[in-house]
Amino acid sequence: MTEERGEPTVRGVPQGERGLRVAIFFVTVSGRIANIATNILTLPYYRFYQQNTLLPILTIAKSVEDRESDGEISAQLKRWRDRKLSEFQLVQVASTLISAAVIGCFSWPAPDSLHWLSPAFWHASISLSLFSILLAASEQFIFQTLHRSPRPRNVDKDLAMILYIRRSRNVEPVHSPLEEVPPIPQIREIKIKEKGGWLPKEMPLVEVRWNMIFTWQAPMMLMAYSALFFLGGLTVYVCAPLYDGQGWVGESKAAVFYLVSFFFCGITFIWCAFWAYRLPAKAVIDIDLTVPDPSVEDDYVPALESVGFQFISREPEWHEHRFFAMCEPYHCNLHVFKPGTAELVRHVIMKEWLIEHDDDRELYARTKVGAADVSNSLGETVMEYNFRKETVIREILERAFRAKGYMA
C-alpha cells in the first residue's frame, strides 16, 4: 500500500469516490442476487439449512472475531456438531424411505401414454437418495470422530472445518465478514465511514469457508431434491389421463383430486418452511409500567402476581428495572420503571421512528429475526438474544436522536 496525495492506494480497489460507489453497488447487487438464489435453491430444506448449517457457522465466526474464549467457542462447536449428527441420522432414514417408495413405484403398471419424465424423475430420485445416504454416513463419521477424540483438540483445527483464520498482529485491518457489505477481496479494504471503523490489527482475520458450508449441507440438499424428484415423477404418472385424451374418466378425476391435495400440501410446506419462518411478529407484547418507587416491591408485586404475572428478575442498577412475564400462556412481558426514566422516553422515540421510517422498521425486523434464529439454534438466553440486536438498535436510535436534535 502506497501513499499518493495523502490518500492510501489499495491494490485492486477502484480509486476515487465514483469508482468506489460503482464497485460497492455491483457488490451489493450481486450479493442480493446470490441471497435470493440461495433462498430459492434451499427452499425445500430452508429451515434445516438456516438453523443447522448457516446461522451456527456465522455465529461461531463472529465469536472467533470477537476473541471469545476457547471454551465458549468449543461449546458452540459441540452444540453445532450435535445438531448436525441428528440431521445426518434424519437424512439417512428419510432417504432410505424415499428409495423404497421409488422402487415400489416401478412395480406399478405404466399407462400406454406415460410421459418419459416420470421414470426419469424416479431414476434421478434414487440416485440422489443413495448418494445422500452415503454422504451423510461419511460426514457423520467425521463428526463422530471429532466428538469422541480422547485427546484435547486444538480449537483452530476444529474451526478449520468451517473457517479460514489468520491470527497475526501484522495483518492489515479489514471489515468483518459478517457485515452488510460482502467481504470480497476487492472491497474489504475499503473504509465506509457509515459502517464504523476499521477492525484493529490484532483482531483475527476470519473468513467463512463457503465451500465447507456447501459440503456440510449437501446431504440434506440431496435428500430434499430426491423427495422433489419423486413427487415430480408421481405427479406425471398420476396425471397421465389428463394429457392422453382419455376424457373425464375415473382416472382423470383421481388426478384432479391429487393435484388439489398436492397444491394444498405444497403451499402449506412453503409457508411453514420459509415464509412463516421469516415473520418478524411475535405473539408476545412488551408493556412498560411506572411506579413511584420500584424498590418498594410490596406496593405492586402482589397485585401483579395475583393476575398471573411472574416476577422474573430485578436490575436495580439499571433504572430500578423489574421484569415480569405472563407465563401461562406466555403472551406478555412487563417492565417496571420509575416515572421519567430515560428508558421510557427512548421506547417512545423508537416506536415513533419505526412507524414513520419503513427502511429502519424492515432493518429492525430483519435484525430481530436473525438474532432469534441464532439464539434459538444455540440455546442462548434472552440476554444473549438482546445483545445480538443491540448494535442495530443503537444505530436506529442514533438516527432518531439526530432527527430530534438531541445529537449533533
What is the number of helical segments per DSSP (H or I, 4+ residues)? 12
- CATH class categorisation of the domain at 285-403: Alpha Beta
Report the CATH architecture of the domain at 285-403. 2-Layer Sandwich
* Strand residues, percent: 5-15%
Mean pLDDT: 79
Secondary structure: number of strands: 8
The CATH homologous superfamily of the domain at 285-403 is called Beta Polymerase, domain 2
How large, in whole angstroms, is the Cα Rg? 27 Å
Written as H for each helix and E for each strand, in order along the chain, the element string is EEHHHHHEEHHHEHEEEHHH
Poorly predicted runs of 5 or more residues: 1-8, 168-203
Helix content: 55-70%
Distance between the termini: 35 Å
- CATH fold-level topology of the domain at 285-403: Beta Polymerase, domain 2
Largest sheet: number of strands, sense, barrel closure: 4 strands, mixed
User: Taking strands numbered 1, 2, ... along the chain, how are they ordered across the largest sheet?
Assistant: 5-8-7-6
Pfam families: GrpB
InterPro entries: GrpB/CoaE, NT_sf
Keywords: Membrane, Transmembrane, Transmembrane helix
Transmembrane segments: 88-109, 121-143, 222-243, 255-277
Comma- or semicolon-separated keywords:
single chain; 408 residues; alpha+beta; Beta Polymerase, domain 2; 4-stranded mixed sheet; two-stranded antiparallel ribbon; 12 helices; 8 strands; globular; disordered N terminus; transmembrane helix; UPF0157 protein
